[in-house]
């Protein structure tokens, strides 16, 4: 535990010292430059965010105790909802960056190329607040989120109900069992995923296993985001290994999150950005 905590602190400090903070300058691809300058560094707020943050505040005050079925560690436990909201939910600034990326991908140009709305997949629903950010961008998008704990799932569904989000499909159960079935269905139908957020089992082994499943149903414009890439040494090693995959054309290390692109015209390069 101490070793993992030390790695997180040291790794984040090194990232802060070595990463770029140029607003996109030095990135030669017009596509990536736009993504960095006008989306990742954007500070404008979208109208739906206020209601989601109100739900976050409600969760931070919730004294309810829930039973957590943790398939990642294999150790089930009882925990206060307020503690889960404090330590396990993606912070607002990162969730808002993802919302901006999806907002851009939901634009007219992208939709015309696909001739369909986006298919968004989230591994690790938790209290459903990040899911809400993903779903609130466009009601036509299909959002599929995977969660192992039944009581946590119920809290997430309550939050979506209060936010009026109806297009979210929640897949309950062990992701090691439910994700392969979902991927197999997509393959049979010849369908692909446009955006993925991996925020479930924070081990290098599980991350690589999920990546191997997901990479087979990505299209050339897909974006994959890994949260907590500096959670541990083996998680960071998995992030680096994914970056070397032949399917991957560029990655962006944002400190806590990593962004994976499979857009063929890009020259393979790995960027470290301070956002």
Description:
With 275 residues, the protein is α/β, with parallel strands linked by helices. It has a single domain (2-54, 89-272), classed as Rossmann fold (3-Layer(aba) Sandwich), CATH 3.40.50.150. Helices cover 46% and strands 19% of the residues. The chain has eleven helices and ten strands. The chain has helices spanning 2-18, 30-40, 49-60, 81-87, 92-105, 108-114, 129-135, 150-163, 175-189, 204-215, 233-243, and strands spanning 65-68, 77-80, 119-123, 142-147, 168-172, 193-198, 218-227, 250-253, 257-261, 269-272. The chain has an eight-stranded mixed sheet with strand order 5-4-3-6-7-9-8-10, sandwiched between helices. Strand 1 (65-68) and strand 2 (77-80) form a beta hairpin. Helix 10 packs parallel to helix 11 (233-243). The longest helix has 17 residues, at 2-18. The radius of gyration is 18 Å and the shape is globular. The mean pLDDT is 90.
Helices and strands in order:
Blueprint: H1 2-18, H2 30-40, H3 49-60, E1 65-68, E2 77-80, H4 81-87, H5 92-105, H6 108-114, E3 119-123, H7 129-135, E4 142-147, H8 150-163, E5 168-172, H9 175-189, E6 193-198, H10 204-215, E7 218-227, H11 233-243, E8 250-253, E9 257-261, E10 269-272
Parallel strand pairs: 3-4, 3-6, 4-5, 6-7, 8-10
Antiparallel strand pairs: 1-2, 7-9, 8-9
Please give a quick description of this structure.
The protein has one domain: Rossmann fold. The chain contains eleven helices and ten strands.
